[in-house]
Amino acid sequence: MPSLLLTVFLLQLAIHLVNTFGASSINTLLWNLYSNLPISKSESSAEQRELKSQYMKVRKEMNAISSQDEFAKWAKLRRQHDKLLEQLEKNKASTDSTRATFDSAVSTLRWLGTNGLRMFLQFWYSKQAMFWIPKGWVPYYAEWLLSFPRAPLGSISIQAWFLACTAIIILVSDALVAIVALVAGLGSGTAQKAKKEPIAVPSEKAGSKEKEEL
Amino acid sequence: MSSAIINVDDALEPTLQSILDQKTLRWIFVGGKGGVGKTTTSCSLAIQLARVRRSVLLISTDPAHNLSDAFSQKFGKEARLVNGFTNLSAMEIDPNGSIQELIGQAEEGEGPAAGMGGMMQDLAFAIPGIDEAMSFAEVLKQVKSLSYETIIFDTAPTGHTLRFLQFPSVLEKALAKVSQLSTQFGPMLNGLLGANGQLPNGANLPEMMEKLESLRETISEVNTQFKDENLTTFVCVCIPEFLSLYETERMIQELAGYHIDTHCIVVNQLLFPKAGSECEQCNARRKMQKKYLEQIEELYDEFNVVKMPLLVEEVRGKERLEKFSEMLIHPYVPPAGGL
């Protein structure tokens, strides 16, 4: 059973991490990884970049010449510009739709891997005891609560274990965040001090120099 | 004359001869910015076409009707022969006005929209532009039944024209949706409405759907005809000035977007001061026009670019129009020694 205990803990940790970093930023990270993979997808994104730079070039060129003095040249550039713009928009639409499919697929997989898995485990092991607590440690109502909903009385149910893991993870992460904030605050405080000093020194020196000159 | 023949080798000939020669052409649009001479050009083209075709109809869709002015003869909603011609007719339609008439007719129980009544009116005001498109479709239906060999449209200034040409596809989509809905929910609606299918405002649902469906068919047929380069072409009229050129370029691109063929540009109101002319304004203007003419020739090398001079008299009446129309076919030769 210890492996199940560990699994539950790690699963809860993963859920917590996803919640902290945000699902959308994880999706973006995965998307960037995916679009940089050496498959056809990345080729089209390179093409898009190429198109964009070409478009900007034409645009710059078009803005540089006078439409009144060189109408023919300007109009030709304009045609090119319109064509490129249309192509860019079409490409963008197709990329967007691919991205949407990718996002929904990733979201589904992520849900299945975290919350879905948790629900499954909670259901599958609901009648099993995670471990037993010595008799008489806690009163009856507490025993009943710890074994809620279907684990045998006097044991810890998987639900209770999940809750315990969640509580610990939140506690530790809050503590970590607080420590990091404290350290960062101290660091920036000392940095400010350190900054102030070198500014003060040259001004004094300059002042003394001026005095000397005077 | 010989210069025109030599020109054929290096550039397309600067005349509208290609339109006269293309016997399959049925619809010819003449369009451009306001005040560049669309009406004069379309009248002249009609006169030239009348010489080589069995019958020609000239239609003005411009709300500011100029056909009557140009031929010094009153034209109306019905096609009427132009004085002095046996195979050239003209008519003026007001795209904005005719929907009101259509509704009026419908309320009196006659005309193409009869039976649609208040529903029709609601529809006409619910979708912007539908009134114009529907009246246009009605006119086209009429024109088709009149069996003219060639029909020339003297269109309203740029924006208007393009809206017309663009509209059929929009309307077609909307009507297809409505028809589909009505076939799905029609039975249920009829159950609610009673045996006769009477709508609250006195219209009949199945009958109305039938009317809309026939309208849609007309529009889609016209749409496919307009996209066929053997049947339809667009003649752009412009003057050698920046704004006019800009609009023309935009129009040509949009027409290409709608797959409407265009291969003729008429450059109107060209100044050709005589050699040693003292008119400062004329010379300055000629210089400017020359600049834009060069640009036009560089940009539209695949077009027939026709150059028409600015005359000292207004081009009105049959004789003057005929004289002017000659220059569409036989290029004008500017006075020697000019700028």
From TrEMBL, chain A:
<dbReference type="GO" id="GO:0005789">
    <property type="term" value="C:endoplasmic reticulum membrane"/>
</dbReference>
<keyword id="KW-0472">Membrane</keyword>
<dbReference type="GO" id="GO:0043495">
    <property type="term" value="F:protein-membrane adaptor activity"/>
</dbReference>
<dbReference type="Pfam" id="PF04420">
    <property type="entry name" value="CHD5"/>
</dbReference>
<dbReference type="GO" id="GO:0043529">
    <property type="term" value="C:GET complex"/>
</dbReference>
<protein>
    <submittedName>
        <fullName>Uncharacterized protein</fullName>
    </submittedName>
</protein>
<feature type="topological domain" description="Cytoplasmic">
    <location>
        <begin position="173"/>
        <end position="214"/>
    </location>
</feature>
<keyword id="KW-0812">Transmembrane</keyword>
<feature type="signal peptide">
    <location>
        <begin position="1"/>
        <end position="20"/>
    </location>
</feature>
<feature type="topological domain" description="Lumenal">
    <location>
        <begin position="1"/>
        <end position="4"/>
    </location>
</feature>
<keyword id="KW-0256">Endoplasmic reticulum</keyword>
<keyword id="KW-0732">Signal</keyword>
<feature type="transmembrane region" description="Helical">
    <location>
        <begin position="160"/>
        <end position="186"/>
    </location>
</feature>
<comment type="similarity">
    <text>Belongs to the WRB/GET1 family.</text>
</comment>
<keyword id="KW-0813">Transport</keyword>
<dbReference type="InterPro" id="IPR028945">
    <property type="entry name" value="Get1"/>
</dbReference>
<keyword id="KW-1133">Transmembrane helix</keyword>
<dbReference type="InterPro" id="IPR029012">
    <property type="entry name" value="Helix_hairpin_bin_sf"/>
</dbReference>
<dbReference type="GO" id="GO:0071816">
    <property type="term" value="P:tail-anchored membrane protein insertion into ER membrane"/>
</dbReference>
<keyword id="KW-0175">Coiled coil</keyword>
<feature type="region of interest" description="Disordered">
    <location>
        <begin position="191"/>
        <end position="214"/>
    </location>
</feature>
<dbReference type="InterPro" id="IPR027538">
    <property type="entry name" value="Get1_fungi"/>
</dbReference>
From TrEMBL, chain B:
<dbReference type="Pfam" id="PF02374">
    <property type="entry name" value="ArsA_ATPase"/>
</dbReference>
<feature type="binding site">
    <location>
        <position position="268"/>
    </location>
    <ligand>
        <name>ATP</name>
    </ligand>
</feature>
<keyword id="KW-0256">Endoplasmic reticulum</keyword>
<feature type="binding site">
    <location>
        <position position="279"/>
    </location>
    <ligand>
        <name>Zn(2+)</name>
    </ligand>
</feature>
<comment type="function">
    <text>ATPase required for the post-translational delivery of tail-anchored (TA) proteins to the endoplasmic reticulum. Recognizes and selectively binds the transmembrane domain of TA proteins in the cytosol. This complex then targets to the endoplasmic reticulum by membrane-bound receptors, where the tail-anchored protein is released for insertion. This process is regulated by ATP binding and hydrolysis. ATP binding drives the homodimer towards the closed dimer state, facilitating recognition of newly synthesized TA membrane proteins. ATP hydrolysis is required for insertion.</text>
</comment>
<keyword id="KW-0862">Zinc</keyword>
<protein>
    <submittedName>
        <fullName>Putative ATPase get3</fullName>
    </submittedName>
</protein>
<keyword id="KW-0479">Metal-binding</keyword>
<dbReference type="GO" id="GO:0016887">
    <property type="term" value="F:ATP hydrolysis activity"/>
</dbReference>
<dbReference type="GO" id="GO:0043529">
    <property type="term" value="C:GET complex"/>
</dbReference>
<dbReference type="GO" id="GO:0046872">
    <property type="term" value="F:metal ion binding"/>
</dbReference>
<dbReference type="InterPro" id="IPR016300">
    <property type="entry name" value="ATPase_ArsA/GET3"/>
</dbReference>
<comment type="similarity">
    <text>Belongs to the arsA ATPase family.</text>
</comment>
<dbReference type="InterPro" id="IPR025723">
    <property type="entry name" value="ArsA/GET3_ATPase-like"/>
</dbReference>
<keyword id="KW-0378">Hydrolase</keyword>
<feature type="binding site">
    <location>
        <position position="241"/>
    </location>
    <ligand>
        <name>ATP</name>
    </ligand>
</feature>
<feature type="binding site">
    <location>
        <begin position="33"/>
        <end position="40"/>
    </location>
    <ligand>
        <name>ATP</name>
    </ligand>
</feature>
<dbReference type="InterPro" id="IPR027417">
    <property type="entry name" value="P-loop_NTPase"/>
</dbReference>
<feature type="binding site">
    <location>
        <position position="282"/>
    </location>
    <ligand>
        <name>Zn(2+)</name>
    </ligand>
</feature>
<feature type="domain" description="ArsA/GET3 Anion-transporting ATPase-like">
    <location>
        <begin position="26"/>
        <end position="329"/>
    </location>
</feature>
<dbReference type="InterPro" id="IPR027542">
    <property type="entry name" value="ATPase_ArsA/GET3_euk"/>
</dbReference>
<feature type="active site">
    <location>
        <position position="62"/>
    </location>
</feature>
